[in-house]
Amino acid sequence: MLIDQYKLVKENVKAACEKAGRDPKEVTVIAVSKTKPLSMIEELMDCGVMDFGENKVQEIMKKYEEIKSPVRWHMIGHFQTNKVKYIVDKVALVHSVDSVKLARQISKEALKHKIQVPVLIQVNLAREETKSGFMEEELFGALEEISRLPGVLVQGLMQIAPFVENPENNRVYFRRMRQLFVDIKEKNFDNIAMNILSMGMTNDYQVAVEEGSTMVRVGTGIFGERDYNK
Questions:
Q1: Please, which residues bridge with residue 92 across strands?
Q2: I want to staple 202 with a disulfide (CB 3.0 to 4.6 A). Which of 130, 162, 197, 220 is the partner?
Q3: Structural domain count, the chain
């Protein structure tokens, strides 16, 4: 059953927190439901799970309209500025703000809807060409610009670490992200809060939690392998 897989992830998070001397209540598990049918989401909902992650705008829109009761949708994937208007009022958190241009568009749509949009700033610490996000040396300048945008509430940072066979290989990236998170918090930027550190996926979330993650994004570990033909 799906709930058993979810509970196993929660138990692993708890064990990682205990190892690091942290409170498990500090960590939110995002069930990454991309490509998965609504029935699987609702099965978890029936057991009290509320946080679900999607990486495509059209999939959030479809599931948002069809879901039997509201959940907290997390936009975790890269998306174009022309898609902002479709989800800005539907998501609890945008994890993947990877450019000032995207932040400006979120601000524009937030003002239209008269809402505040919580976002995370995506950082590409490993400098992978296939992934989006700010390079470390760009981060503070970008935060200064984004902090001045009305309707955009920066709540923290997000990272997609490299895919590795041994999760220990990503510890260096998680540790550096945690340090950036602390450094930004100490700078006290106006309108910038460092409350959320979103890092860690199915293959490495336990190491991420040990290094300070407050949100892990787990798909395969809960739902099984994804069908990309859907």
A1: none
A2: 220
A3: 1
The CA distance from 134 to 131, in Å, is 10
Q: What is the DSSP string of 53-110?
A: EES-HHHHHHHHHH-SS--EEEE-S---GGGHHHHTTT-SEEEEE-SHHHHHHHHHHH
Place of tokens 């509201």: 70
- State the residue for tokens 């975790």: 76
Residue 22 lies in a domain: yes
pLDDT in tens, 74-94: 999 999 999 999 999 999 999
**Residue 24 lies inside a defined structural domain of this protein:** yes
CATH code of 69's domain: 3.20.20.10
Domain that includes residue 35, residue range: 2-222
What would the pLDDT profile of 59-74 be if each residue is shown by its tens digit? 999 999 999 899 999 9
| In a domain? residue 228 | no
